[in-house]
Amino acid sequence: MKFDLSSIDVKALGKVAVLMGGLSAEREVSLMSGSGVLQALQSQGVDAHAFDPAERELSELKREGFARCFIALHGRFGEDGTVQGALELLRIPYTGSGVMASSMAMDKIMTKRVWRFEGLPTPDWRMVNSAEETRAALQALGAPMIVKPSREGSTIGLTKVVSVEQCDAAYALAAKYDPEVLCEEFIAGDETTCPVLGEGASARALPVIRIVAPEGNYDYQNKYFTDTTQYHCPSGLPEAEEREIQRIVVQAYRTLGCRGWGRADVMIRASDRRPFLLEINTSPGMTGHSLVPMSARAAGLSYEQLCLWLVSQASLEHSVQG
To answer: Is the torsion defined by CA of 296, 301, 303, 308 positive or negative?
Structure first.
């Protein structure tokens, strides 16, 4: 995939708002992502400014003459289609997926239904509404089993359940974040992630990253606040496995109608080396520990170049005829 940055007229981008912070459980990470993006854009000569929707009304974007937005919000009210819908109404182009794709990708259960319908591999699952149903799901899916909120990110509210005694607490923790709770078959094997840039037929996968977390526990702490997690990019996987992961990730991205950028998490089952799609993130992290910049670097694109390319791709889903 070629990135022609020389054709980007920085001045023509206009005044850019980097949306960061917000109201979700991932506010802290979003502030880190947004700060990195803001600094990167400013270093490229972009007239970029921080904007926290938790502290200011979005309508101020229009009043203050912002021409486009870089969405560095994570989780609810950031990557679930709500802020995208508001920006569509304000007619301010933004980075990343539109309303429908953002909303679907944020809902892990809906995502899995679409992928399963399209014949894409994803672990078996049950949606549960009580601790009792969680125990029944463990019976059906077997142990270990992953219990998590359907519409949260960054492994927030997630429990790896190995016995029936853990089911009640696991359900209660997940339900604290979302009434829709997902119980998912655990896939033992290599943990990988793969970013995608672009839209439709032009969407392309970046290099795969293989993640090795302490004791296999890639939780919130190990994602953002420790240096003990190892990231391998190049992944070290056989070339055929890397290509297959990239193929299904691009298909998964296109199936949901994603655009701009995204990152899908994939487990490779140790027993038969078969890949399984877990979820897709339409507003990936851009912190010092984040994975899209790491993969982009392996493809020859610096953090600053990635930010500049993404903001140059900002768009609206619907044009107004008049």
So the answer is: negative
131 CB-contact burial (10 Å; exposed 0-12 / middle 13-18 / buried 19+)? middle
CATH pick for 11-96 out of 3.10.180.10, 3.40.50.20, 1.10.10.10, 3.20.20.140 = 3.40.50.20
Say which of 97, 283, 290, 295 is annotated catalytic.
290
Return binding residues: 265, 279, 281
Average pLDDT in the 21-30 region? 91
**Catalytic entry in 154, 235, 283, 295:** 154
Indicate whether 185 pLDDT > 80: yes
- Catalytic residue check, 26: yes
Residue 290 a catalytic site member: yes
Positive or negative, the CA dihedral 259, 108, 281, 215 is negative
**Residue type, position 229, single letter:** T
Cα–Cα distance, 296 to 301 (Å, whole number):
5
Neighbours of 4 (CB within 10 A): 8
Q: Is 295 a catalytic residue?
A: no
Backbone angles phi, psi at 117, to 5 degrees: -60, -35
> What homologous superfamily is domain 125-185 in, according to CATH?
ATP-grasp fold, A domain (3.30.1490.20)
Note the pLDDT tens digit of each residue in 149-181.
999 876 789 999 999 999 999 999 999 999 999
Query: Given this structure, which CATH class describes domain 105-121+188-305?
Result: alpha beta
pTM: 0.93
193-235 pLDDT per residue, tens: 999 999 999 999 999 999 998 766 555 555 555 678 899 999 9
| Binding residue ranges for Mg(2+) | 265, 279, 281
